[in-house]
Amino acid sequence: MHAWMRFWLGESCRLCSAGLLPMESGICTGCLGVLPFAWMRNSLSVVENEKEHINMPIRSWLLFSEHNAVRTLIHRIKYQSDAHLAFDLGCAMAKDFRSDASMVWPDVWIPVPLHAKRRRQRGYNQSEMLAKGLASVGGGRIDTQSLIRQLHSESQTKNSRKGRAENVQQAFLCTRSKPPGMPLKIALVDDVITTGSTLKSCCMALNRSGFTQVEAWTLACSGWLD
Ligand SMILES: [Zn+2]
Q: Is residue 161 part of a domain?
């Protein structure tokens, strides 16, 4: 929806409930100013699996540190059907990360998929809405077909850290192979990183299909779901 339309509809800030101005989206400038942006926007890690000979460097991008206000926003996009806010937060991610000199914009966005049953319950995939926000600011194709979730685990919020890691090991499948000779930078998009096991599992699935240039773009990190 156009920003002016949302203004006339009287959209309010998701954190302080103040009316939003036309140039604001989702969160007012005052609240945005006090949100804890991650002190380290990006970091490099390696996804390894000896048995499958996978050794894959992954650059991870993170917008927010852990904070109560961030928790409120995540809760809204996950459990309160606030798809608009997820889109707005995707735009905020894009604007912040683009200011980083080391940023090379991805070609393809792959939102971490929800199982079909969970998606039906929620009505949308919040990570897909984040990806739409990202693509609207900087471009790139959104691919919701290539990576699928095979297993429907119990709600991740109820499982232990170890249980979650085991659950998601084989949870994802990449349904297509990388076309030969085509350099393609993929960014996985997720709302929250907790143990990192979901993103690792996605990376491994993509790697098995020949995609090796993969980044992970996440809105927030969290220990609060434990
Ligand atoms: Zn506010």
A: yes
How far is it, in rounded angstroms, from Cα 198 to Cα 158?
A: 15
Q: Say how many Å lie between the CA of residue 157 and the centre of ligand 1.
A: 27
| pLDDT > 80? residue 156 | no
Decide if 193 contacts 58 (C-beta within 8 A).
Answer: no
Say how many Å lie between the CA of residue 200 and the centre of ligand 1. Answer: 34
Domain range enclosing 22: 1-34
Does any domain span residue 203? yes
Most confident of 40-44, 78-82, 129-133, 164-168: 129-133
pLDDT per position as a tens digit, 160-170 = 666 555 556 67
Helices (H), 13-169: 29-34, 68-79, 83-98, 116-122, 126-138, 161-168
Same domain, 2 and 51: no
Cut 0.85: pTM above it: yes
Strand, helix or coil for residue 219: strand
Q: Has residue 226 been placed in a domain?
A: no
Quote the number of domains for the chain.
2
Separation of CA 134 and ligand 1 centre (Å): 22
Distance 176 CA to ligand 1 centre (A): 43
DSSP per position, 19-45: BPPTT-BSB-HHHHHHS-B-SS-EEEE
Distance from the CA of 133 to the center of ligand 1, in angstroms? Answer: 20
